[in-house]
Amino acid sequence: MGKDIQERGGEMIEVQDLTKYYGNVIALSGVNFSVEQGEILGFLGPNGAGKTTTMRILTGFIPPTSGRARVAGFDISEAPLEVKKRIGYMPENVPLYGDMGVERYLLFVAELKGVSRSKRRSHIGEIMERCGIREVAQRPIGKLSKGYRQRVGIAQALVGDPEVLILDEPTIGLDPKQIVEIREMIKSFGGEKTVLLSTHILPEVSMTCDRVVIINQGKVLAQDTPESLAARLRGVRKLILQVEGPEGEVLNVLGDIQGVREAKKAKDLGEEKAEYLIEAKEDVRREVARAVVEKGWGLLELRPDAAMLEEVFVQLVTEEEA
Question: What is the pTM for the complete model shown?
């Protein structure tokens, strides 16, 4: 499989030629990707693409038919217990016990994961605080809203302080406010933990992930940053910018930035605030942010255009199916 992960400088997950058959049906066909230490990787694909199968293999729930994978330097087949010690897993349907209180359930998970008795309560207290569930600590899980149950699901993945988090569709079925809250929580893990985030929701990737792997029909179609994928396929990058400043001057400054092909106002936000769409030949986020700050304007938002990722996804999936 080549050099050991630890010799290669920070790959926490490495997958090579992973293949899985269910009878005569192929679920994965030679899947290859890697996730760097501290990176949040979006695993993007339609339902049935092979995302959950990949995650179940990485977490030791099912074996691959062929191929290899390593987590934190340990082979999933040769050292499955070492791999499981280093992974926090939140499946799409989290196995929560509805009649147990939140804190009691998390203490039970801590016991299963081998957290020492002397540290369990403080450890669980920190996790509940981070996941925003301390206020429902004594409430039965079955009485919680879907949003709180998802938070408990993420909390149980954090028990034992694993190096790697594998989250399968963590925002599915949530309302818009809950989705934003869960996304912000996941983003806060970046740099501290390595996160593999499975989703079929395109904005999830643009707003949460450092890099994306697009999978369909058991095959990896592309992997890169969302904006780089868009640039590669379309020859242009698009950014959404929200600024508080004089419209005419903002457009002039944006248009003068090297690499910017076009800057135009997308919509008015009132009180000298507006949203602008920037098309560029390269990644100009740093230059755009610097220009806005130097002018003393309010930088309200700067992000890749999620619609670009949607175009890339549709194009790749359509080409693969054709």
Answer: 0.73
What class is the 5-227 domain? alpha beta
Beta strands, E only, the chain: 11-22, 25-36, 40-44, 66-71, 74-75, 87-90, 164-168, 194-199, 211-216, 219-224, 237-244, 260-270, 273-280, 298-304
* Burial grade of 72 (CB within 10 A; 0-12, 13-18, 19 or more): buried
164 closest CA partner among 192, 129, 205, 200: 192
311 phi and psi angles, rounded to 5 deg: -65, -45
220 strand-pairing partners: 215
Tens digit of each residue's pLDDT (9 = 90 or more) over 43-89:
988 888 899 999 999 999 999 999 999 999 999 999 999 999 999 99
Structural tokens at position 118:
């002397």
Contact between residue 86 and residue 162 where contact means Cβ atoms under 8 Å apart: yes
**Among positive and negative, which fits the CA dihedral 80, 83, 85, 88?**
negative
Level-2 CATH architecture, domain 230-321: 2-Layer Sandwich (3.30)
Q: How many CB atoms lie within 10 A of CB 1?
A: 12
Crossing angle for the helix pair 146-158 and 102-112, to the nearest 10 degrees: 30
**CB neighbourhood size of 83 (10 A):** 22
DSSP of 44-97, one letter per residue? E--TTSSHHHHHHHHTTSS--SEEEEEETTEETTT-HHHHHHTEEEE-SS----
| Among 305, 319, 219, CA closest to 266 | 305
pLDDT in tens, 220-274: 988 888 777 766 656 667 889 999 999 999 999 999 999 898 999 998 998 889 9
Domain ranges of the chain: 5-227, 230-321
Mean pLDDT in residue range 89-95: 88
- Structural contact between residues 224 and 212, judged by C-beta atoms closer than 8 angstroms: yes
